[in-house]
Each structure stands twice: as structure tokens, then as C-alpha cells.
Amino acid sequence: MLGLIGGTGLNRLQGLVIDEQRKLSTQYGSPSGAVHLGQRDGQKIAFLPRHGHGHRIPPHAINYRANLFALKLVGVTHIIGVAAVGGIGAHMAPGELVLPDDIIDYTWGRQHTYSLGAQDPLRHIEFAPPYDAGLREALQHSAKRQNIKMMPSAVHGVTQGPRLETAAEVRRMGRDGCDIVGMTGMPEAALARELDIPYACLAVVVNWAAGVGAGDSIHAEIEKFVDIGMDKALRVIQDLQLS
Ligand code: HPA
Fold first, then answer.
1. Average pLDDT over residues 142-147
2. What 3-state DSSP class applies to 86?
3. N or C: which terminus of the chain carries fewer CB neighbours within 10 A?
């Protein structure tokens, strides 16, 4: 079963025939909302909106540990985290779909591990590369079948939010090698790895990052591009063939 974590612009999954809504509480607390179990075009899906059903939990306040653990409890075998991001690299224009292959984590103060200390076996998970190769390949095949352009690699910089970045911060991220910037990619990806669940991020560029674009306000851009981008992401996910 595919676990799908929706981000900004993907709070509900159209076309999902819901069989069951599971309200779970985990030893790490409550996930962002009930996990919707259902089917979309014959594919079994467990859907969880990262920011909650209808209400907006800000990126730094999301209980990532509970979200990932809840998806594990319902039995997902793979997870795709859909994320709205800002574009830093010249090719990362609003409306583009991106399949990042690496991460720089700028977040702080988040509950970012299941290794809690003495009572848990300490695991130094390998995180290079941070995303699952097989799942990324399946997403690439699906995009090709659907004739949807998707950037095959990018470095995903993850900031703390909820404020957007300054132009100088974005310039620094560009020098660091970041191509896109979002606020929710971490610790989500690392927690999935700790739980041994193959995870990939499908990023939708919804704006030029601060100081990069020609001057449209970021929020105006997001409004303009979020639906187009999310629609493409869903078409890629819909045709995904998991091995
Ligand atoms: N910065 C950080 N997170 C984002 C952005 C951005 O420009 N756009 C969408 N999520």
C-alpha cells in the first residue's frame, strides 16, 4: 500500500474512494489527522495531509514522528511526500515538477528521530542518498508514461519556517548547492528511513524563492501555480507502478 503525505495544495485527495478513516494515536502523539484509507484507480492508498485536514498545522509544529509512525501502523510499504517548494536554480521555475535526489537540512528544534536515548538501540541510519532509489525510478517511469516533464534531480534545502526566507538566505542556499527550498521535507525523509520505509519526495515548484524571481509577490505566485503543479504530481502518482 502506498502512503501519500500531502502538503500545501494537497489537503484532500480527489478521486480517493475512502474505505475507512483511521484516527490513530501513537506513542509519539497524534498525527496531523485521520489517515484516509482507500483506493484511487485501483491503487490502495493511505493518505495523510501533513498540515491537517482543513486546518493548517505550521511546518515546525507538525508531529512528523507521529505521522510516519501512523503510516507504518496502517501498513504502508512505500511513502511519497508531496511538497510545495520555491525554486532557486534557474531551471526550477514555478509550475515545474521536481524529483529531488539530495537534501540539506536547515531545520532546528524538531523532533527528528525515533532514537530517544538509553532505552532505544542507537541507530546511525545511512542517509546518502536520502531518497529511495527504486521509488524515484518508479516515479520517473510514471512521469515518462504520462508525458509529464519532471526534473530528475535537485538538492532540496529545508528551512525552519514558517516565515519565508530572506534574499540573502536564498543566495547562500544557492551557494550551498540547493536547487529548491521547502519547509517540510525534514525530518520526514529521515524518519521514514529510520522506520525502513522507502520514501521519495515529489516536489512542486510553486514560486521563485525570495530574491530569485522578477518581482511577483511570492503568495500571488503560489496561488497561480499550486493547482497546476499539484495536478501534475497527482497524475504521476496515479500511474505509479510499485514493485
Ligand atoms: N520557501 C520555503 N518554503 C516554500 C517556498 C519558499 O519559497 N515555497 C513553498 N514552500
1. 96
2. strand
3. C
- Could you identify the residue written with the cell 532505544? 120
C-beta 181 within 6 A of ligand 1: yes
**How far is ligand 1, taken at its centre, from the CA of residue 181, in Å?**
6
2 C-beta neighbours (distance < 10 Å), count? 19
Q: Are 22 and 74 in contact (CB under 8 A)?
A: yes
Do the bridges between strand 35-40 and strand 17-22 make them parallel or antiparallel, or are there none, so unpaired? Answer: antiparallel
d(CA 64, CA 136): 21
Q: Residue 170 to residues 152, 173, 180, 211, 229: CA-CA distances in angstroms? A: 22, 5, 10, 7, 22
C-alpha span between 76 and 54 (Å, rounded)? 23
First to last CA, the chain: 11
From the CB of 86, is ligand 1 less than 6 Å away?
yes
Ordered by where they begin, the domains of the chain are 2-239 (3.40.50.1580)
Would the CB of 182 count as within 6 Å of ligand 1? yes
Q: pLDDT value at position 54? A: 79
Residue 219: CB atoms within 10 A of its CB come to 11
Which pTM was predicted? 0.95
Rounded-to-integer distance, Cα 87 and Cα 204, Å: 9
Binding-site members for substrate are 183, 207-209
pLDDT tens for 27-58 read 999 999 999 999 877 788 999 999 998 778 99
Measure CA 162 to chain center: 16
Residues recorded for the chain? 243
